[in-house]
Design brief:
Length: 306
């Protein structure tokens, strides 16, 4: 039925069997979801943010539900890149889907060291998180600093052979300018958006709900913001744009692709229904068939403005 329909897309040097990836931090290291479905069905798996050394993350409470999404202040808790390579990567390899590591550093050099370590592994690409709103050092500090971003991308590009994606945020500065800057510095693609700074207060205790006070807002609440960012950025850069923010179903995914995204990432929806990614992949195929569209690439940027 679907054999005639092409759903492959290209991101840098990577050919994805379909445009649906998992959003970093919402799908663990991938393995946590293997009991729900065959991970090989995914376009790509993006791991939670990994740093050079293990990180404990922020103290609890780290998550709170909001009317149309959630706030998180995990603080990039992770097992460190070397443990990921020795413990998780060998188990992920059996799934014939590209593994992309989301990289986080407290300093410029840390991003470069992690990329160096990944160069000779089976990891298919890296996504540089320069836009996390809930850590004290790194993260947003870089999203606003063009010189630091240039250093990170230039120095990684010199040695790193595979695909480099840079994850951007609407929290600081102009996201279009930053996307153009990343393209010039040698990024293969940009992904947007990361979460948006938010907070919640417990009216009984008068204290912030999150121990970190601020958290990152995700889910349907941020979809219109993410969609506008993808639309604007994709007009300004030639490299692929990956859309992320509040995608709950195939209709949301289609909106992002029509706005100009070559691929999409699904995050918060995984907490509600761990099968969301596979459902979106299947429903996209039905949509294409119903509408006699034989190549999903025809949807990219198909928005009509008149
Ligand atoms: C619990 C949680 C943890 C996250 N951790 C990361 C992370 O480690 N690195 C990163 O780049 N983005 C991280 N994000 C941001 C998501 O990848 C995504 O950009 C954002 O949640 C918007 O997509 P969504 O609305 O589909 O969740 C995290 C989001 C959540 C909800």
């Amino acid at each position: 039925m679907t054999n005639k329909i092409n759903i492959q897309v290209k991101i840098g040097k990577l050919i994805l069997k379909n445009p649906v990836m998992t959003a970093s931090g919402t799908f663990g290291y991938g393995l946590e979801f293997e009991k729900f479905f065959d991970l090989g069905k995914l376009g790509a798996i993006i791991t939670k943010g990994l740093s050079l050394n293990p990180v404990k993350g922020n103290p609890p409470q780290r998550i709170v539900e909001t009317p149309a999404g959630m706030l998180n202040a995990i603080g990039l808790q992770n097992i460190g890149i070397k443990n990921f390579i020795s413990e998780k990567l060998p188990l992920l390899k059996k799934y014939k889907t590209p593994i992309i590591v989301n990289v986080y550093g407290r300093k410029v050099d840390e991003y470069i060291e992690v990329a160096d370590i990944l160069n000779d592994t089976d990891v298919a690409g890296i996504e540089l998180n320069i836009s996390c709103p809930n850590v004290k050092r790194g993260g947003l500090q870089f999203a606003a600093d063009k010189k630091a971003v240039e250093k990170i991308i230039n120095r990684i590009r010199k040695k790193y052979k595979k695909t480099i994606i840079v994850k951007l945020s609407p929290n600081t500065g102009n996201i279009e300018d930053m996307a153009i800057h990343c393209e010039r510095c040698g990024a293969d693609a940009v992904s947007l958006i990361n979460t948006i700074v938010g907070m919640a207060i417990d009216i009984k205790t008068k204290k912030p709900v999150l121990a970190n006070v601020f958290g990152g807002l995700s889910g349907p609440a941020i979809k219109p913001i993410a969609l506008a960012a993808v639309f604007k950025v994709s007009k300004k850069v030639k490299i692929p744009v990956i859309g992320v923010g509040g995608i709950m179903n195939y209709k949301d995914a289609l909106e992002f692709m029509m706005a100009g995204a070559t691929a999409v990432q699904i995050g918060t929806a995984n907490f509600i229904d761990p099968l969301t990614c596979v459902k979106v992949i299947k429903d996209l195929q039905y949509y294409l068939k119903e509408n006699k569209i034989y190549d999903i690439n025809k949807i990219i940027g198909a928005i009509k403005l008149e």
